[in-house]
Amino acid sequence: DAGVTQSPTHLIKTRGQQVTLRCSPKSGHDTVSWYQQALGQGPQFIFQYYEEEERQRGNFPDRFSGHQFPNYSSELNVNALLLGDSALYLCASSFRRLNTGELFFGEGSRLTVL
Amino acid sequence: GQQLNQSPQSMFIQEGEDVSMNCTSSSIFNTWLWYKQDPGEGPVLLIALYKAGELTSNGRLTAQFGITRKDSFLNISASIPSDVGIYFCAGHNNDMRFGAGTRLTVKP
After folding, report:
1. pLDDT, tens digit, for every residue of B58-92?
2. Contact A103 B94 (CB under 8 A)
3. Does chain A have fewer CB atoms within 10 Å around its N or its C terminus?
4. What residue in B sits closest to A38 (Cα-Cα)?
């Protein structure tokens, strides 16, 4: 049973570029949440997708957008990258009907913006 | 916003010692959870608490959901070297909010 998988694991971009990160949820899960984790900090909630729609959103600008596909996988897109976007981006999956807050995390995509 | 204040920021202990860390919030949460993150990996769920006052154990780990629903603590008994890592508290309503973490170092 595959857990949450994310790609790529590492990437380097320059300011102003755009990036797309991908996530496949744990088998049986239908909800995907994205988090940004800066060095030395806890994960910060970006948004959550369920039934291919954004359901909840944290305090992130519109440069951060996402998508969920019919197979429950998800993408995080960040436009006009800033140096401050450098972070570990974590994808977490869950089963919405349980709504227990028990999240299963991937290993993350580490983005460096130069 | 739903800020979680986690303390201490870091701990350096001797193998075999007990550890205690806690988390407080100005907001009420329906669920409190504790996660552990090892270097290069995503957080892994340790314990989830669903009711105010609930005390739950998972091996050497014990956690409690505060009666006010605004706080939680995690205890680790008889620490071992593999307990090293960053421990995060998290509060859940419709989405999950995390504390800044407690970095635990265990000296053999």
Report:
1. 999 999 999 999 999 999 999 999 999 999 999 99
2. no
3. N
4. B100
